[in-house]
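Below is how a single chain appears once it has passed through the pipeline. First comes the sequence as given, then the structure the pipeline wrote out for it. We keep one example in the README because the format questions we get most often are answered faster by looking than by reading.
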Amino acid sequence: MSTETAVKQGAASRLRTARWSGVKVWPYLFALPFIAFYFTFHFYPLVYSFWLSLHDWNGIGAKTFVGLRNYVTLLTKDPLFYKSLYNTFVMMLMSVPLMILLGMVLAYLIFHLTKGRLLFQTINFLPYITTPVAIGFIFSFMFDWQTGIVNAILMKLSLVTEGYYWLQDPWMSKAIIALMIIWRNLGYFMAIYLAGMTAIPQDIYEAAKVDGSTGLHTFTRITLPMLRNITVFLIVTSIIGGLQLFDEPKLLYGGWSASTSGGPDNAALTVIWKFINDSFITGTRFGYGSAIAYTLFVIIVLFSILSYRLSAGKGEKS
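Resulting structure:
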């Protein structure tokens, strides 16, 4: 074998090696930072928190393995957990259906505007990018029994003779929190529905108009079915977010003393608020707090699957 042939074979071998290295090694090297961060800051805490839920630990001393005792205590001996779960569901039921309905109607009205469409989109979307702290201050001042604008308007109209304790009433506190959620997230729902309406082919609307379809008939027979997937997405994500409700009730009652945590008669206490109280504020029971978090995780998974099947299952089978 000549020297020239040997050189060519060596070059070809090195080229194959370089190509193999480039194909096999570099993708993993580029993905390594994300994988490392994922396992370090997401997967490991997830597994560790479940392992911690099987222990009794105050964050300082040694961990004591208790098995499923934290879960048994939570589900059989902690009525406040069920109250927080009940409050969370009530506030979610007060807000989610209205956000779906109003978001769709608002998007439909803005979609058919000829002038000022961008202005109305911006105005309705601004609350969504407002910081939760500012929203908490706004609503706490609005419904204050002494200086609140709501009481001032009602007294001006002679509907009430003295200021009403809105934030002291258990049911009104839930309604105010639901109003905060709707006011903050309505612009997001509107934007999602507006994007879905923009994606619907205009030929369908033109054909319906030629056939004499009215606006209401077009909305119920064309627009709503075409937006079914978006509605399913919003319902599922709203349930996931609603079960993790914390910002609005905490900020609404954030100025109160620690003894009134959870609002009047714990009417505004949510599962996440209870988790934070038991883990960091009223006690340092990290194992018990982890049990609350994992119980909520199971509830979120079950209700997400249920909501998806109820809202999308029939459409997929047909």
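The mean pLDDT is 84.

See the next section for the split statistics.
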